[in-house]
Write a structure and sequence with these properties.
The complex is a heterodimer. Chain A is mainly beta. Chain A contains no helices and 12 strands. Helices cover 0% and strands 50% of the residues of chain A. In chain A, a hairpin with a 2-residue loop joins strand 7 and strand 8. In chain B, strand 7 and strand 8 form a beta hairpin. The chains are: A mainly beta, B mainly beta.
Amino acid sequence: AQKITQTQPGMFVQEKEAVTLDCTYDTSDPSYGLFWYKQPSSGEMIFLIYQGSYDQQNATEGRYSLNFQKARKSANLVISASQLGDSAMYFCAMRDLQTGANNLFFGTGTRLTVIP
Amino acid sequence: ETGVTQTPRHLVMGMTNKKSLKCEQHLGHNAMYWYKQSAKKPLELMFVYNFKEQTENNSVPSRFSPECPNSSHLFLHLHTLQPEDSALYLCASSRGGRDNINEKLFFGSGTQLSVL
């Protein structure tokens, strides 16, 4: 069963606007962590932001914030004030103890294109 | 400069060749990973080494053979590959240990492998 679902294969956003990238996850483990990574055309996966299942507040890192809705099992990434350099693939990922803390499950990704 | 370096960046090989992918991390981490990234599929975890001990082997065919001589170096030896093995192979590292839900992975830029 797929643990991470990203339903948007591609998204477009105007420069300086905000964009939300969707992510839903599936786990019965009460303890888990959610991650977002960015993959530019160079190939390297760059860590953006982390949210723990017990964290009371939504995570924020600069222009990135995570809209964490635990009951809905969603962890959407919000990028504010989009820049041309934000054009890349974005991957949501999850780790839980149930399937082994060493395994980080990734979604299929969303390709974001920022339009000047 | 990335803390995780992969070589070569690109590799083209025939089905009868033997080649190796190399990964080196300069972050003082104790866990290293191989992931396979195929088009339109989630990243697939292949192997994990934690403190030089292999802790995950995700049903990977024996034509892929990992080697971890120390915590800083990881190899993936390839032999008699199939065209469907063509993909981006990503190496990653992390602090290591057990049950670290919030442990983030640091990735290299990958090796783009084409099997003819």
